[in-house]
Amino acid sequence: PTPTQMASANDTRQAQKDAADQNFDYMFKLLIIGNSSVGKTSFLFRYADDSFTSAFVSTVGIDFKVKTVYRNEKRVKLQIWDTAGQERYRTITTAYYRGAMGFLLMYDIANQDSFSAVQDWATQIKTYSWDNAQVILVGNKCDLEDERVVATEDGRRLADELGRGPFFPPPQQAGHETDSGGCRRLQNPRNKRRGGGNF
């Protein structure tokens, strides 16, 4: 195997090990969804591993990372799923919606099509997830401000229209705050121990 394949296999084994760890007070299953190339994988790596790359690698199907954080002296385990945005993987990814307690619905501020698709993604959440799932609309790639085609106010307005939670345009690249507000909101432990409930 190549070094890249070996590293990927090691990451997968570590994620599986972390997922099996039962030493926590609360656990949340979160999904990052949106069109392909909006930056879902980079966002996840930035948050979970404190790393960032501008190289685009398309997610095949679905992948996940586990991050443990501490809030109010409680150990909170986040199981964060990175979903593929391509249509051909849609059947696979929607199968994971049902058990999710929160969604980051992401679009690229420099890509109008990804913003236009938000309504379709929101419909899928409504169709396949449970009623109490929390949703945050995320305008991503804010480092591309010079290429912005989606105004921040349009993002806020759409979040209000959808009625599915707050709007958040996060920092992403190295040098910005790693613990981005979207994930900070989702990891607030207001639900039942190791179970469901509202955030």
Automatic annotation (TrEMBL):
<dbReference type="GO" id="GO:0005525">
    <property type="term" value="F:GTP binding"/>
</dbReference>
<dbReference type="InterPro" id="IPR001806">
    <property type="entry name" value="Small_GTPase"/>
</dbReference>
<keyword id="KW-0342">GTP-binding</keyword>
<keyword id="KW-0479">Metal-binding</keyword>
<keyword id="KW-0653">Protein transport</keyword>
<keyword id="KW-0547">Nucleotide-binding</keyword>
<dbReference type="GO" id="GO:0015031">
    <property type="term" value="P:protein transport"/>
</dbReference>
<dbReference type="GO" id="GO:0003925">
    <property type="term" value="F:G protein activity"/>
</dbReference>
<comment type="similarity">
    <text>Belongs to the small GTPase superfamily. Rab family.</text>
</comment>
<keyword id="KW-1003">Cell membrane</keyword>
<keyword id="KW-0472">Membrane</keyword>
<dbReference type="InterPro" id="IPR005225">
    <property type="entry name" value="Small_GTP-bd"/>
</dbReference>
<comment type="function">
    <text>The small GTPases Rab are key regulators of intracellular membrane trafficking, from the formation of transport vesicles to their fusion with membranes. Rabs cycle between an inactive GDP-bound form and an active GTP-bound form that is able to recruit to membranes different sets of downstream effectors directly responsible for vesicle formation, movement, tethering and fusion. RAB3D may be involved in the insulin-induced exocytosis of GLUT4-containing vesicles in adipocytes.</text>
</comment>
<keyword id="KW-0597">Phosphoprotein</keyword>
<keyword id="KW-0460">Magnesium</keyword>
<feature type="compositionally biased region" description="Basic residues">
    <location>
        <begin position="190"/>
        <end position="199"/>
    </location>
</feature>
<dbReference type="InterPro" id="IPR027417">
    <property type="entry name" value="P-loop_NTPase"/>
</dbReference>
<dbReference type="GO" id="GO:0005886">
    <property type="term" value="C:plasma membrane"/>
</dbReference>
<dbReference type="GO" id="GO:0005881">
    <property type="term" value="C:cytoplasmic microtubule"/>
</dbReference>
<dbReference type="GO" id="GO:0030742">
    <property type="term" value="F:GTP-dependent protein binding"/>
</dbReference>
<keyword id="KW-0268">Exocytosis</keyword>
<feature type="region of interest" description="Disordered">
    <location>
        <begin position="162"/>
        <end position="199"/>
    </location>
</feature>
<dbReference type="GO" id="GO:0031489">
    <property type="term" value="F:myosin V binding"/>
</dbReference>
<keyword id="KW-0636">Prenylation</keyword>
<dbReference type="GO" id="GO:0045453">
    <property type="term" value="P:bone resorption"/>
</dbReference>
<keyword id="KW-0007">Acetylation</keyword>
<dbReference type="GO" id="GO:0006887">
    <property type="term" value="P:exocytosis"/>
</dbReference>
<dbReference type="GO" id="GO:0046872">
    <property type="term" value="F:metal ion binding"/>
</dbReference>
<keyword id="KW-0378">Hydrolase</keyword>
<protein>
    <recommendedName>
        <fullName>small monomeric GTPase</fullName>
        <ecNumber>3.6.5.2</ecNumber>
    </recommendedName>
</protein>
<dbReference type="GO" id="GO:0042588">
    <property type="term" value="C:zymogen granule"/>
</dbReference>
<dbReference type="Pfam" id="PF00071">
    <property type="entry name" value="Ras"/>
</dbReference>
<keyword id="KW-0449">Lipoprotein</keyword>
<dbReference type="GO" id="GO:1903307">
    <property type="term" value="P:positive regulation of regulated secretory pathway"/>
</dbReference>
<dbReference type="InterPro" id="IPR050305">
    <property type="entry name" value="Small_GTPase_Rab"/>
</dbReference>
<keyword id="KW-0813">Transport</keyword>
<keyword id="KW-0488">Methylation</keyword>
